TrEMBL record:
<dbReference type="GO" id="GO:0016491">
    <property type="term" value="F:oxidoreductase activity"/>
</dbReference>
<dbReference type="InterPro" id="IPR002938">
    <property type="entry name" value="FAD-bd"/>
</dbReference>
<feature type="domain" description="FAD-binding">
    <location>
        <begin position="112"/>
        <end position="355"/>
    </location>
</feature>
<dbReference type="Pfam" id="PF01494">
    <property type="entry name" value="FAD_binding_3"/>
</dbReference>
<dbReference type="InterPro" id="IPR051104">
    <property type="entry name" value="FAD_monoxygenase"/>
</dbReference>
<dbReference type="GO" id="GO:0071949">
    <property type="term" value="F:FAD binding"/>
</dbReference>
<dbReference type="InterPro" id="IPR036188">
    <property type="entry name" value="FAD/NAD-bd_sf"/>
</dbReference>
<keyword id="KW-0285">Flavoprotein</keyword>
<keyword id="KW-0560">Oxidoreductase</keyword>
<dbReference type="GO" id="GO:0044550">
    <property type="term" value="P:secondary metabolite biosynthetic process"/>
</dbReference>
<keyword id="KW-0274">FAD</keyword>
<protein>
    <recommendedName>
        <fullName>FAD-binding domain-containing protein</fullName>
    </recommendedName>
</protein>
Length: 420
């Protein structure tokens, strides 16, 4: 998502066509990984700046506005009779898309000639001439003035950046496992309606399942399901030791969620071939850029999905970097300064959201300080304690609709202007 959003942003802002953009994708073709993708008002404002709101709006039941909406219904569902805790109300709309639709929308903003598939980066090296030499798995190579690694949680560029900085033994070199597996899938609304008419997730969401509707390109309304099963004792263990991603039998997830309320059981019974992934994240990086080398997206701040902000933060990385690179007075000579500014603005923000995502996940699962006594299926929790959890969740998330990325853009451009 990060690479496509950067390419789209550069094409949108480079009015003078001073940049030659090349996007290298390791897969044989660009396809979606995962299922649904969420967008908060903060990210939607960036879509408006990139003039992507209109094409993305075709995948929504109604066009977003800035009035107050219920983003989520917070429920305690790990019991036979679920408990409504609180509606999370926000100014603006929390949006859900099929990931493939977002990717294809971004791709249409890119020059097809600039997209190169089946190009897995194996190494890179900064050259004495002031460029970067790229070496790919197929034996081919390329050169560039700036290398931006948005190459995922197992990023080759991140490793090279840390080694360049003398941090070859950094704890951030490789991802860690959060101890949590997520079971994901898409359900056709009609199938869910057939076994549970009027199911609330057709219009709202549950946890800790996270569930929301998405409207696919073919017009079908789908329900995106992400069901989490965690083992806190495995938190921050090596990602390489986590179970591998795989399709699993429905009975596996039904067993994990046995005893949950009927609406949850109905959802899970509709998952014909759920896929499970280990959720990884990064121990925070001290730097997202050095010289001509930049990282963004999961390569910089891979995070659990508990704030629904992983893709949004990749888009912010792309948005701010594109603003800097397309500044009318940006030149090759300014690349080190652009690197410094990007790091100064994006590293604190990305790391902050990474930390907030971890905290929010602990709140969802009653693992936060003060709630250690709560057990799954506990029906005797005082409602004021449930309300307290809901208020803490709302506080953790409010930056996604109360704040705008434009303040960070203004800060970045002001810092760049100070060096001109």
């Amino acid at each position: 998502m990060g690479g496509l959003s950067l390419s789209a942003a550069l094409h949108a802002f480079d009015r003078s066509n001073k940049l030659e953009i090349n996007l290298y994708e390791s897969a044989h073709h660009i396809t979606e990984i995962g299922a649904g993708i969420g967008m908060w008002p903060r990210t939607w404002k960036i879509m408006q700046e990139l003039e992507l709101d209109e094409p993305l709006g075709h995948f929504l039941p109604s066009f977003p506005d800035n009035s107050e909406h219920v983003a989520w219904e917070l429920r305690k569902s790990d019991q036979l009779e679920g408990v409504h805790i609180q509606d999370l109300k926000i100014k603006g709309t929390a949006l859900g898309f099929h990931r493939a639709d977002v990717q294809q929308t971004f791709l249409k903003k890119c020059d097809p000639a600039s997209v190169h598939v089946n190009k897995r980066l194996t190494s890179f090296e900064e050259t004495p001439e002031g460029g970067v030499h790229l070496q790919f798995h197929d034996g081919s190579s390329a050169t560039c003035d700036i290398l931006v690694g948005m190459d995922g949680i197992k990023s080759v560029v991140r490793k090279g950046l840390l080694i360049k900085q003398g941090l070859s033994h950094s704890a951030s070199l490789d991802p860690v496992w959060t101890g949590t597996m997520v079971y994901r899938g898409l359900i056709e609304q009609a199938a869910l309606e057939a076994i549970y008419p009027g199911h609330r997730t057709i219009t709202t969401a549950l946890m800790h399942l996270i569930v929301y509707p998405v409207q696919h390109e073919d017009g079908k309304v789908l329900v995106n399901v992400a069901a989490f099963v965690g083992n806190p004792e495995k938190e921050n263990t090596p990602y390489s030791e986590a179970p591998i991603s795989a399709t699993c039998e429905p009975e596996e997830i039904l067993t994990a969620y046995a005893g949950w309320e009927p609406e949850v059981q109905a959802l899970l019974k509709c998952l014909s071939q759920p896929k499970k992934w280990p959720i990884g994240d990064l121990l925070p990086l001290d730097s997202y850029a050095s010289g001509r080398i930049f990282v963004g997206g999961d390569a910089a701040h891979a995070m659990p999905p508990h704030q629904g902000s992983g893709a949004g933060q990749a888009i912010e990385d792309a948005y701010i970097l594109a603003k800097l690179l397309t500044h009318p007075k940006s030149t090759k000579a300014l690349i080190p300064k652009i690197s410094e500014v990007y790091n100064s603005v994006r590293q604190p923000r990305g790391n902050s959201v990474l930390a907030a995502s971890i905290r929010t996940g602990r709140l969802y699962e009653f693992l936060a300080p003060g709630f250690e006594h709560v057990q799954e299926g506990d029906t005797n929790i005082p409602f004021e304690n449930l309300h307290e959890i809901a208020e803490l969740v709302s506080k953790e998330l409010e930056w996604t609709w109360k704040e705008s990325a434009e303040a960070d853009v203004a800060k970045a451009l002001e810092m760049l202007a100070g060096s001109l």
